[in-house]
Amino acid sequence: MKVRFTVNGAAVEVDVEPRRTLADALREDLHLTGTHLGCEHGVCGACTVLVDGEPARACLMLAVQADGMSVSTVEGMAGDDGTLHPLQKAFGECGGLQCGFCTPGMLMSALDLLHREENPSREHIREELSGTICRCTGYMGIVDAVEQAAAELRGFQEGAVVGPEQ
Ligand code: FES
Ligand code: FES
Description:
Elements: E1 2-7, E2 10-15, H1 22-29, E3 48-51, E4 54-57, E5 70-72, H2 86-93, H3 103-116, H4 122-128, H5 140-153
Parallel strand pairs: 1-5
Antiparallel strand pairs: 1-2, 3-4, 3-5
Helix pairs in contact: 2-5
This protein binds FE2/S2 (inorganic) cluster (2 copies).
């Protein structure tokens, strides 16, 4: 089946079997391998992308379900000139990643959160990211990163004190 949608603002068309997942279409047909595949059954969150602005597990969604929709992946976070999004920068600065396997899903989930809330509490950040599993970081650096990026996006000075772990 021919499926047309946009990815990070660009119109794309893929010719897929009806059973092909959105994750496989992104990774294998469109070569957007930033969306990671872990469990492939909706548990780990590594494959999280935004579909029409809502977080979705790309391993559970069929490519045909994306027809006519707008998909955002981690490849679209940085600016056209390569400038990292404040969330990407903060993950690097705060130790929000180690092996990086969970990171695309974490970033997309965090992006969704910051679209909805400009100043989430640490507790709420943890709750919102609880659907994405990280085996490396212990989560503290991830929460720090989201808090730092939220502060930057609110226009605070870079390096603003983000408060101790609670
Ligand atoms: Fe999709 Fe784990 S790969 S939730
Ligand atoms: Fe390794 Fe999260 S950084 S799984």
